[in-house]
Amino acid sequence: MKAMIPYKKIEDSRGKFLGIVNSGDWEEINYIETMPGEVRGGHYHKETRELFYIIEGEIDIEIKHLHKSVENNFTVTSGSIFIIEPFEIHTFICKTKCMWINVLSKKIDDQFCDIHRVL
């Protein structure tokens, strides 16, 4: 897991501009809403990288690398930006109503289903 910071922030009389990411090859963008107490994820990808931008809410995240003895547990809130790398099992536990943007380096479809669950 890699925490990110915005590449640019501008505030003026018109409002705000927040540059979330300006690098990488991304094929799919999703908007997700989840109710408090719900769990998402619980899987890993072999090839796909996922970028997340938390718009609103508080989420406990559990990350465990499939091939390394690396495990991270942390909480993200509004404005957090991070990337999940391949082979990182990621589980999101929503503490509040949550809204976020999810961006994938490879689109998920019938021809390329890179979602794998650990039994």
What does this structure look like?
With 119 residues, this protein is mainly beta. The protein has no helices and eleven strands. The chain has strands spanning 2-4, 8-12, 15-19, 28-34, 39-43, 50-56, 58-65, 71-77, 81-84, 88-94, 98-104. A hairpin with a 2-residue loop joins strand 2 (8-12) and strand 3. The two termini are 22 Å apart.
Task: Kindly summarize this structure in a few lines.
The protein is an all-beta fold and about 120 residues long.
Reading the helices and strands in chain order gives EEEEEEEEEEE
Radius of gyration: 15 Å
Separation, N- and C-terminal Cα atoms: 22 Å
Helical content band: under 10%
Low-confidence segments, ≥5 residues, pLDDT <50? none
Number of strands: 11
Q: Largest beta sheet: what is the strand line-up? A: 1-9-6-11-4
The major β-sheet equals: 5 strands, antiparallel
Strand content: over 45%
Query: What average pLDDT do the residues reach?
Result: 92
Oligomer: single chain
Tally of separate helices? 0
Broad structural category: mainly beta
Coarse shape:
globular
Based on the model shown, name its key terms.
119 residues; mainly beta; 4-stranded antiparallel sheet
